[in-house]
Amino acid sequence: MQTPYHVLFVNDSASDSEKVGIALGSCSEEFELVEAKTLGDFETYLLQPDYAAVLVNLPVFDFQGTQAVARIQSALPGTPILLLTGPDTEWVALEAMRIGASGYLPKQPGYLERLPRCLQVAIDRGSLFEMKAQAERELIRSQTFNRAILDALTEHIAVLDQNGVILTVNDAWVRFAEKNGPIDTADVGPGTNYLDVCAKAADCGDRQARMALEGIQGILDGAIDSFSMEYPCHSPEEQRWFIISVTPIGEGFSGAVVVHTDITDRRIAEESLHQTRVQLDFTLRALSIGYWEWDLQTGEAYYSAEWKLQLGYDETEVTNHRESWKALLHPEDRESVVATMQEWSRSSLRTPLSALYRMLHKDGSYRKILCKASIQRDSTGKPLRMIGVHVDVTPGAHESED
After folding, report:
1. Fold: same for 139-265 and 287-401
2. pLDDT tens digits, one per residue of 374-402
3. CATH architecture of the domain formed by 287-401
4. Is 20 a residue whose pLDDT tops 80?
5. CATH superfamily to which 5-130 belongs
6. Which fold, 139-265?
């Protein structure tokens, strides 16, 4: 891709406009910014399909959740999207990455110095995405394995025959082995049985190696269609996480493609979000307010320590699932409260929910609980997650705290 890179900057903050312009204008790479400062500009500029990337400063205009990202993906499919986030929009960035955004950069001290590099990485990954998909489909079709494309990928890739013997690896695989392995690079290169490598590590007590061995063997045996697993791979200098993905070569060929992808940035982002949640829990606990979240797609839930404590339970006594809350409802309240929650979550109403009901305390008594909740929706308005607070309003409930 030729420079200058044509970048659409979606932003309605005058102060950030100047800062970003200076940061990108002073770097060695050449970026040509086209700034959409209004919703009208945004829709007009989306009609120009020649952007190397789109930079979005969240929150922007009146978009909710991932609506801005979804609109960009619809108009400019395949274009890399990098998000600038503040403390209140980090969760939006994580949701956006799940639907295809390239990454995000928190607006913390030093972020402007990192911005050019992050934008360059997003552009590079975007330009390689189509080549990667093509390479994985055509990897085994010819004896050359399209080395130029394969070696351009940052993922560590190996192709195994039906017995688990490595047929070929890309440059990223070799570089990682040379930099990190105490063993000789030849021990994980072409001609080596990768199943034996995993078995050796598993015999030394490596649980992840045992799981990888079983997954790869399952692919080679035709017992499963795909296998993936996240695992830590820390070095003395840094903590790192990867995901191993294994798929059959397919199309008449026996064997498997093994891909190790660095997901360290994602894990760090998730840990940052976890720490934010911990801080929120701590603050709300001081106010005697419980906090909860429900994933409306899976039924999984999160209940803060204060939420559980108000009902007399410790951290381990309430399972993080919606059914746990349902089971603790007073039998006389359960049917009506559940129906109210379901009706509200499925409606198009944007107003918060307020409900009063009784819940079973560990001591056998029932506590009167005031619940207030709101819903996070996707760009189409589909409910994704319910978030709320929980307060014990039973008369005398907090007298011991005064």
Report:
1. yes
2. 988 888 888 888 999 999 998 865 554 44
3. 2-Layer Sandwich (3.30)
4. yes
5. Response regulator (3.40.50.2300)
6. Beta-Lactamase (3.30.450)
Alpha-carbon separation of residue 141 from 58, 134, 170, 226, 260 (angstroms): 44, 11, 16, 20, 21
How far apart CA 60 and CA 74 sit, in angstroms, is 17
Spatial contact of 160 and 216, defined as CB atoms under 8 Å apart: yes
Dist. CA 105–CA 201, nearest whole Å: 36
By the 8 A CB rule, do 71 and 46 touch? yes
Cα-based distances in Å from 360 to 293, 305, 367: 19, 16, 6
Compute, in degrees rounded to 10, the torsion defined by CA atoms 87, 89, 90, 93. -160
Q: Which residues contact 240 (CB under 8 A, 6 or more apart)?
A: 232, 233, 234, 262, 264
Cβ atoms of residues 228 and 259 within 8 Å: no
pLDDT digits (tens, 9 = 90+) for 25-84: 766 568 888 999 999 999 999 998 789 999 999 999 999 989 999 999 999 988 999 999
- Give the Å distances, CA to CA, from 61 to 7, 129, 251: 19, 30, 48
Non-local CB neighbours of 177 within 8 Å, separated by 6+ positions: 185, 188, 189
